[in-house]
Amino acid sequence: MATEDPAVDAEPKHADWSIEEVGALVQYLHDHRAEQGNTGNFHQSTYTNAAGHIHPLHISGKIKDHKNVLIKWGVIKQTYNVIVTYHSKSGEHWDNEHGTNISGAPAGENWSEYVAMKGNALMRPFCNKGWEYMDFLEDIF
């Protein structure tokens, strides 16, 4: 009697996104930004086509379908909104080369407190670097 090895998962349950897949997704949605609806989302067919577009870049995890693309797009939009909110605060620096450009111990402590607050964790990577997708998102929105 054959037994199945529980360590072997024929169908991964989670979509692992590589940097290349995310870049290709953002580029695809940027190129198809005319298909965007009023809410900043795209039609399901656009997400389906985007999933097909990034499929050749698949490395690991679940093969992305329209739902995975929709979810990833939501995270990308959240990141964009967090950056825009931060930048719109009076006196807060943002540029797409150095991010928030935090330097010095006092500023670093303030930054740590800021990103620890609810809703600000997506800003953590941008302490001293920009976001490679910012120009694309600005065009989309």
Question: How would you summarize the topology of this molecule?
Answer:
Elements: H1 19-31, H2 44-54, H3 66-88, H4 105-116, H5 134-140
Helix pairs in contact: 1-2, 1-5, 2-3
Explain how this protein is built.
This is Myb/SANT-like domain-containing protein. It comes from Pisolithus microcarpus 441. The protein is mainly alpha-helical. The protein has a domain at 63-140. Helix content is 47%, strand content 0%. Helix 1 crosses helix 2 and helix 1 packs parallel to helix 5 (134-140). The longest helix is centred in the middle third of the chain and has 23 residues, at 66-88. The chain is globular. The chain starts with 18 loop residues before the first helix and ends with a helix.
Features:
141 residues, mainly alpha, globular
Count of DSSP H/I helices: 5
Largest sheet: none
Which structural class fits the helix and strand makeup?
A: mainly alpha
Outline:
globular
Give the number of DSSP strands.
Answer: 0
Describe the oligomeric state of these chains in a short phrase. Answer: single chain
What does the radius of gyration come to? 18 Å
Distance, first to last CA: 58 Å
Unreliably modeled segments: none
Helix proportion range: 40-55%
Order of helices and strands: HHHHH
Q: Which percent range describes the beta-strand content?
A: under 5%
Average per-residue pLDDT, rounded, comes to: 90
Protein name: Myb/SANT-like domain-containing protein
Organism: Pisolithus microcarpus 441
